[in-house]
C-alpha cells in the first residue's frame, strides 16, 4: 500500500512539474514578445493572429511544398 501511495505522489509531482514548465514557457513567450505590457484583450488578439498566421504557413507548407520539391527534383535530374 505504501508503494502505491508514493507512486501516486510521484505522479502528482510529475504532473505539477509539467504544469510549472508550461507556465514557465508561457512566461518566456510573454517576455520575449513583450506581451506582458499589453492588456489581456490585446494579448489575446495578438496570440490569435500569431496562431492563425503560423497555422496557415504550416498548412501551406504541407499542401504545396511536396509539389514544389518534386518539380525541383525533376528540374535537377
What are the salient characteristics of this protein?
77 residues; mainly alpha; 2 domains; 0% strand; flat
Secondary structure elements and pairings:
Layout: H1 2-32, H2 40-76
Model description:
Its main location: endoplasmic reticulum. It is found in: Endoplasmic reticulum membrane. The protein is mainly alpha-helical and 77 residues long. The protein folds into 2 domains: 1-37; 39-77. Helices cover 88% and strands 0% of the residues. The longest helix has 37 residues, at 40-76. It is flat. The termini are far apart. The mean pLDDT is 90.
State the gist of this model:
The protein is an all-alpha fold and 77 residues long. The protein has two domains: 1-37; 39-77. It has helices spanning 2-32, 40-76.
Structural category is mainly alpha
Number of helices: 2
What is the H-and-E element order? HH
Strand content: under 5%
| Mean pLDDT across all amino acids | 90
Terminal residue distance: 67 Å
Amino acid at each position: 500500500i505504501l508503494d502505491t501511495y508514493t507512486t501516486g505522489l510521484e505522479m502528482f509531482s510529475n504532473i505539477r512539474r509539467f504544469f510549472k514548465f508550461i507556465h514557465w514557457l508561457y512566461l518566456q513567450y510573454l517576455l520575449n514578445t513583450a506581451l506582458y505590457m499589453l492588456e489581456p484583450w490585446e494579448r489575446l488578439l495578438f496570440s490569435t493572429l500569431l496562431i492563425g498566421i503560423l497555422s496557415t504557413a504550416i498548412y501551406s507548407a504541407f499542401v504545396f511544398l511536396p509539389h514544389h520539391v518534386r518539380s525541383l527534383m525533376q528540374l535537377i535530374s
